C-alpha cells in the first residue's frame, strides 16, 4: 500500500475537468445512467486502479469492481468497472485512463527490467533515481513499486550520497577521506554512499570503509574491473551501477556482479494501451 495524497487526486481531476463536461451537457446525456469498463489491450503489470477508484468516487460515480495494482493482466482483461450518470463518467474517463496507462507502463517496464537483470544475477536489486517526469513523482514511484522495484532515494533528507558537486567544496576525495570517520560518528545509523568517477577513487573509498559506491556511466569493462578489485579489498561494500542503463543493456551490467542497478529509464516510455467503453445502462 502506498499513500497518495488527496491533493494529487484533486490535481489530476482539475487538469482535465476545471468545471464541467461541456460536450455531455450540450448533447443532453448528462444525467443518463451509464456503465464504464476499462480493459487492457496488452499484457501488463497493472497499477493505479486504487487512485482511479478515488477519482471516480469523487466525481460521483460508483465502482463495481477493480483489479489491484501489481496484478499481471492479459489482453482483454477487464481491470475496472464503474457506473453512474453519463456526464460524471465522461468527466472521469480520460483522467483515469491516463493514470492507469502511465502507471501501468512504469510498472511493466520495471518488471521487465528486473526480469532481465535477474536472469544473469538473481540477487540484484533494481532501484530508481529521483529523475522522474516533473509533478508525477508519487504516481511514478507507485508504478515502480508495483513492478517490483524500490526507490534509490525518495528525497535528500534521509540518505547520504556524496557527489562530485559536494566534493568540490571540501577538496575532493582527499577532503572526504579526512571527514569520513567524523561523518560516520555523526550519522552512525545511516549508510554513506559516494559516487565515483574513477577506479582509483573507488578503491581508496572501499579501503576507507564507505558503505556503498555508485559508478556513473562506467563502461562495462571498467565496471567489471572495479567490481573484481573492490571485492578483494572490501567484500561488504554495496556496488551500484547507474547512468544509461535500460532494457537493452541491463543484463550486461547485472552480469558484472554489482549489487544494484539504479535507473530512471522505467519512468519514460510508452504507456500501456487501455480500452475504455461507456454504454447506456
From TrEMBL:
It comes from the Bacteria. Its EC number is 2.4.2.19. The keyword Glycosyltransferase applies. GO terms for biological process: NAD+ biosynthetic process; quinolinate catabolic process. Keywords: Glycosyltransferase, Transferase. Pfam families: QRPTase_C, QRPTase_N. Residues 106-275 form the Quinolinate phosphoribosyl transferase C-terminal domain. Gene3D superfamilies: Aldolase class I, Quinolinate phosphoribosyl transferase, N-terminal domain. It catalyses: nicotinate beta-D-ribonucleotide + CO2 + diphosphate = quinolinate + 5-phospho-alpha-D-ribose 1-diphosphate + 2 H(+). GO terms for molecular function: nicotinate-nucleotide diphosphorylase (carboxylating) activity. Residues 21-104 form the Quinolinate phosphoribosyl transferase N-terminal domain. It is an enzyme of class 2 (transferase). Pathway: Cofactor biosynthesis; NAD(+) biosynthesis; nicotinate D-ribonucleotide from quinolinate: step 1/1. One of its GO terms (cellular component) is cytoplasm. The keyword Transferase applies. Belongs to the NadC/ModD family. PANTHER family: NICOTINATE-NUCLEOTIDE PYROPHOSPHORYLASE [CARBOXYLATING], PYROPHOSPHORYLASE MODD-RELATED. This is Putative pyrophosphorylase ModD. It comes from Heliobacterium mobile (Heliobacillus mobilis). The lineage of its organism: Bacteria, Bacillati, Bacillota, Clostridia, Eubacteriales.
